[in-house]
Amino acid sequence: VTFKYNGSTIVPGDQGVDYETFKRKCTDDVRLFGFVRFTTGDAMSKRVKFALITWIGEDVSGLQRAKTGTDKTLVKEVVQ
User: Fold this and answer.
1) What sequence ranges are listed for the domain ADF-H (predicted)?
2) Phi, psi dihedral angles at 39 (to 5 degrees)
3) Whose CA, among 3, 25, 39, 70, lies 20 to 30 Å from 57?
4) Do the Cβ atoms of 50 and 36 come closer than 8 Å?
């Protein structure tokens, strides 16, 4: 699942099962958060892991970049 910005508000974005689709959303002019679920382990033990990916495109302004860092904490709280 992704969370993106609508103005200054963070809103739910897309969800899916394909990592390539997620990567296509990560363009130079956006900032977004992606919550990824994956399974790891061996034949005897499988574990589900989660990762929160923060994407800040190259064309995002410095002020928006700084705000993204503080917003990441809020996204973590909502997802947990």
Assistant:
1) 1-80
2) -110, 135
3) 39
4) yes
